[in-house]
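Changelog entry

Holo records now carry the ligand SMILES as an explicit input line rather than a separate metadata file. Below, a converted record for flavin mononucleotide, shown in the new format.
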Amino acid sequence: MNKRIVVGISGASGAVYARRLVRLLVAADVETHLVVSPLGQRLLHDELGMEGVDLNALAGRQVDGSATPAVIQHNWRDVGAAIASGSFLHDGMVIIPCSSNTLAAVATGSSQNLMHRAAHVTLKERRKLVLVHRETPLSLVDIRNMQAVTEAGAVVCPANPGFYLLPESIDELVDFVVARILDQLGVSHDLAVRWGEKSDVRSGQAGGTQ
Ligand SMILES: Cc1cc2nc3c(=O)[nH]c(=O)nc-3n(C[C@H](O)[C@H](O)[C@H](O)COP(=O)(O)O)c2cc1C
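Structure line, unchanged by the conversion:
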């Protein structure tokens, strides 16, 4: 059976990370279950110019109807959707980008919407939960919430691209972050984002820090 991943998009800056991740999941034949908060929808509009949650635009190809692999959107209000149940088997959930608000909800186990509930269920079933938090600077509240979710088994994977591979475009910065998330989810990819893969870095032009 192909992999099945749940993707949450909350109202933090960085919609481009979500779009790139969904595209790579679809390219890797992953069945992708999507839940977008109202502020997540606003960020898709403000940062990507998207009207509503346009699954085909997110995936970069036709994914609605009977297309395979499918991208299935669930209503953020519907805490009775399939992904709210532990009996719905999946290979991990990622919230990308993850707002401090949603981080707090996950940290406290509050399930006021489907994204929170699906994350809570992912933790209780001891499945992989990756939170791509985006906010700066961090308050002590954020830091304590990160500690709480980490102790509960989640992986906080902040949207912090590295610069040691000498990126030349925003796309490369985005790929740096998204590649780490795919690694966490066990989804293979061929993004050239590993130390030693770029010949100019290998030959020492990066200044020797990594
Ligand atoms: C344009 C815009 C950008 C925002 N960026 C962030 C951000 O980067 N990080 C964050 O934690 N909140 C950010 N917020 C605030 C959240 O959207 C807000 O806390 C909201 O309640 C989050 O709801 P959600 O977690 O249900 O998506 C932003 C809001 C707007 C309108």
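Spot-checked after migration. Confidence is low (pLDDT under 50) at residues 206-210. The chain is about 40% helix and 15% strand.
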